[in-house]
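Exercise: predict the fold of this chain.
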Amino acid sequence: MSGQKPPNTANRRAFLRGAAASTLGAVAAGRAVADDPDPLITELQPWAQGLGDGVDATPYGLPIRYESDVIRRNVPWLTADTISSVNFTPIHALDGTITPQGCAFERHHSGAIELRKEDYRLMINGLVERPLVFSYADLERFPRETHVYFCECAANTGMEWAGAQLNGAQFTHGMIHNMEYTGVPLRTLLQEAGYDASAKWIFVEGADASSNGRSIPMEKALDDVFVAFKANGEALRKEHGYPARLVVPGWEGNLWVKWLRRVEVIDRPVESREETSKYTDTLADGTSRKWTWAMDAKSVITSPSPQSPITHGHGPLVISGLAWSGRGAIARVDVSKDGGITWETARLARPGEKMALTRFYLDTSWSGEEMLLQSRAMDDTGYVQPTKAQLRAMRGENSIYHNNGIQTWWVRATGEAENVEVS
């Protein structure tokens, strides 16, 4: 740089102004310092005049108090007691795809139990050469795998079958999480026990009072099911099945048995009343679809939404949401601002991953017009997310499970949003 003249200050400022203006209309999104000085940037603030907390202040890090509203919430009237109930992930307040464990929804049938690692046991029995019992320490000795998968309750969005009911993405779509799980493939443990190759099913149960027994086809068990003992790099939380749970990628959450204690190899499914109700979807003509395990492609706009209104005024706007499919990877997401009349292709934050959440964005601008926001997901099998009308034409309005219909948010001129339906 020796001998060179410094850049012309006026030209440099002009260049910076031009660069800012070319980025999504950033001039409209910010404020000109010279025209409207902001004391929060031009004056020394209290937090810069003293010392902050030391490294030992919070040995296990917690969110700052300004984010205290980013929490799981339940619907008090949904169940008689919270012990056998559900709460909801605050998807409206999150970005990216990984769900922090402390925000991931809970679903319990007899409450979250406390089980020490030292007391944990997992039995493999039934049609096997040698029934085995594994301790937690035994599981840690097997080769492990790490995968990111979503877990969705089959009843997610179930309240919306009869029309717009709950006013918030957290409540309509929040029975879902997406975490990085680490554990041992179930096929490894089945091979260790010498499972009967002619067996067609396994029966799994948990260590809690409900046991939550479920039958799973052997084909799925040998494919990608695994016993997880870590999530997002740390031990499972109590409410997520500590110290070990079953992970059944792409399939409904009631199969993801927590506090997993037994896997029995069997030749036919256990047809309990509870299992039958979970595995069937009643159609409009009274017949039922049986064993509807896989979660079909689905999406929802998380912002703007009823719990995440537009507050910054007119100008640049990022419409953001989540898409997922239990049958493959998300290939594309379209967004409509007019209730499905016209569509724009959204930008995926990264290429879709098999049976994991995908974040999408539509970078646009807003001048105060009302919008009917919708998103429509497509997976790599070619499946296209249906409208609610299409679902109801096939299955009526009395279903509970597997509602993957397109969601509509009505955004008013004030920026507030409401759960509505369009014809």
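Check your answer against the key: The radius of gyration is 25 Å.
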